[in-house]
Specification:
The complex is a heterodimer.
Chain A lengths: L3 E3 L4 E4 L4 E7 L7 E6 L6 E6 L3 E5 L2 E6 L4 E6 L8 E8 L9 E3 L3 E6 L1
Parallel strand pairs in A: 2-11
Antiparallel strand pairs in A: 1-3, 3-8, 4-5, 4-9, 6-7, 7-8, 9-10, 9-11
Chain B lengths: L4 E3 L2 E4 L5 E6 L6 E7 L6 E7 L2 E5 L6 E5 L5 E5 L8 E8 L8 E2 L3 E5 L1
Chain lengths: ~110, ~110
């Protein structure tokens, strides 16, 4: 059974701080990793995808992947109240980048306090 | 906005009834995946359609079935509704050969009474 684990939170950070969200996955053969943001009552919105070990930066967001440790993280710099949402980590359940299903964690709820 | 549309937005059914949910994929996308998201949980994969064929299925019973049409739009059908089927149903579209990034529609909120 392939699993994705996230701390459910809530994670509370002050405005302007760095929010750090973490995720571990069970399938060592996983190739593709995604972070989605989900506001209450809305659908998931893609923030980042990462495929190789190391860091990938996009604006205030940095995704980090460590395949040896089976660990993915998302850093949000200069956190804003509008970043308050649930962050879902997803791992592709297929092999070799094929069009497989996404396996999601339960999500971490982030609250950014003004 | 992702360009993925779903209908209806909300739906209320009673136990034992049948329901059909619809999804139009983003322009240029030929793959549609359906997910069920219960309250407080991450989305769970139901099945995926590629070129009108089922291309993978999650751990859902046969009363969950689907279709994909030549224009790549898709339907999710659920028969014999149960109370536990109450959830947000999400459709995601993607394109074979362009990584495997999936873009979600707004979802259909199904309530089973």
């Amino acid at each position: 059974q392939k699993e994705v684990e996230q701390n459910s939170g809530p994670l509370s950070v002050p405005e302007g701080a760095i929010a750090s969200l973490n995720c571990t996955y069970s399938d060592r053969g996983s190739q593709s990793f995604f972070w989605y943001r989900q506001y209450s009552g809305k659908s998931p919105e893609l923030i980042m995808s990462i495929y190789s070990n190391g860091d990938k930066e996009d604006g205030r967001f940095t995704a980090q992947l460590n395949k040896a440790s089976q660990y993915v993280s998302l850093l949000i710099r200069d956190s804003q109240p509008s970043d308050s949402a649930t962050y879902l980590c997803a791992v592709n359940g297929g092999r070799g980048g094929s069009q497989g299903n996404l396996i999601f964690g339960k999500g971490t709820k982030l609250s950014v306090k003004p | 906005e992702t360009g993925v549309t779903q209908s209806p937005t909300h739906l209320i059914k009673t136990r034992g009834q049948q329901v059909t949910l619809r999804c139009s994929s983003q322009s240029g996308h030929n793959t549609v995946s359906w997910y069920q998201q219960a309250l407080g949980q991450g989305p769970q994969f139901i099945f995926q359609y590629y070129r009108e064929e089922e291309n993978g299925r999650g751990n859902f019973p046969p009363r969950f079935s689907g279709l994909q049409f030549p224009n790549y739009s898709s339907e999710l059908n659920v028969n014999a509704l149960e109370l536990d089927d109450s959830a947000l149903y999400l459709c995601a579209s993607s394109s074979q050969g362009v990584a495997d990034t999936q873009y979600f529609g707004p979802g259909t909120r199904l309530t089973v009474l």
